[in-house]
């Protein structure tokens, strides 16, 4: 009986210890994650200019108004376009650069720094660099085209609604490819050399070695890169706002920039909160099933 009571006290003490250690992360999660979401949803049901002492309850009107605005749908389509681009562009280029460098090129350490360096630059600095490059009269891109006799191809890169998104994607490709390259390069270096040598002994070409051996073993790296790309596409804000403010004529606007403009440009805090709720729902519908499927593929690959 005394032994039973002693064991019971030990279990109670251990349970209290676990509860104490868990209380901090749970509290932080509730304060910095759960509460902002609940507070934002509550604000989306009100009309508030950010200064009035009492927000006015309007129910779901903010959501209905957004669904009747073509500007909102255009921002959603831009986010989807960015999602497709970020999943394919930087991912493919980063994989290509990693595969080329993994073959033992001369100056490998130099190329690694060159490929990854843009990713270390802050978004605002990247925006400043590319605004200068895209300057329509004396920018670097226009100057290069004129120097090779192709001045007629020069455009108002950030001022033409039909090409502004492609210009932004070009700067984003330069900026984010380094991350995909680093992850894929590390993944390639972690592949056991025995697998590669066995494939070569069997007569496999370099392309077959990569496609049949290396690439399937890169699924963990691929999940990291694609998962981050999907998240970046949904939360995209800084480089778009710093380069175009969502213009011209809202052509490059995404949901995050529209939310910022609605909140701090038009002082419609309730409607801006409704945009953020829509963004959260869209991101969840797009990203979570995608990550779930990728994770399932990795589990199946590891099981084999």
UniProtKB/TrEMBL annotation:
GO terms classed as biological process: transmembrane transport
Transmembrane segments: 20-38, 80-101, 113-133, 163-188, 209-231, 272-291
ABC transmembrane type-1 domain mapped to chain residues: 76-288
InterPro entries linked to this entry: ABC_transporter_permease, MetI-like, MetI-like_sf
Keyword Protein biosynthesis in annotation: no
Protein's cellular compartments: Cell membrane
Record key words, sorted: Cell membrane, Membrane, Transmembrane, Transmembrane helix, Transport
Cellular component GO terms, alphabetical: plasma membrane
Protein topology in the membrane: Multi-pass membrane protein
Predominant localisation class: membrane
PROSITE patterns on file: ABC_TM1
Similarity comment: Belongs to the binding-protein-dependent transport system permease family.
Full protein name: Sugar ABC transporter permease
Organism, scientific name: Mesorhizobium helmanticense
């Amino acid at each position: 009986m005394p032994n039973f009571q002693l064991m019971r006290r030990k279990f109670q003490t251990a349970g209290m210890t676990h509860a104490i250690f868990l209380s901090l992360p749970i509290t932080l999660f509730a304060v910095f994650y759960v509460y902002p979401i609940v507070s934002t949803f509550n604000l989306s049901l009100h009309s508030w200019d950010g200064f009035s002492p009492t927000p006015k309850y309007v129910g779901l009107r903010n959501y209905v108004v957004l669904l009747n605005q073509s500007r909102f749908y255009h921002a959603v389509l831009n986010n989807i376009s960015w999602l497709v681009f970020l999943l394919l562009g930087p991912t493919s280029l980063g994989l290509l650069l990693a595969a080329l460098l993994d073959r033992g090129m001369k100056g490998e350490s130099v190329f690694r720094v060159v490929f990854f360096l843009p990713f270390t630059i802050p978004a605002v600095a990247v925006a400043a660099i590319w605004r200068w490059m895209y300057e329509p009269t004396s920018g670097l891109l226009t100057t290069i085209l004129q120097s090779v006799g192709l001045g007629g191809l020069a455009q108002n890169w950030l001022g033409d609604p039909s090409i502004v998104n492609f210009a932004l994607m070009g700067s984003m490709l330069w900026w984010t490819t380094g991350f995909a390259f680093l992850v894929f390069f590390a993944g390639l270096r972690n592949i056991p050399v025995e697998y590669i040598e066995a494939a070569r002994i069997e007569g496999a070409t370099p392309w077959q070695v990569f496609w049949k051996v290396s690439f399937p073993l890169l699924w963990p790296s691929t999940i990291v890169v694609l998962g981050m790309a999907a998240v970046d596409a949904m939360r995209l804000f800084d480089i778009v706002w710093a380069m175009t403010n969502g213009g011209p004529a809202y052509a490059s606007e995404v949901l995050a920039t529209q939310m910022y403009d609605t909140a701090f440009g038009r002082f419609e805090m309730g409607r801006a909160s409704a945009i953020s709720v829509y963004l959260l729902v869209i991101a969840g519908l797009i990203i979570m099933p995608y990550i779930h499927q990728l994770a399932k593929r990795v589990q199946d690959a590891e099981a084999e």
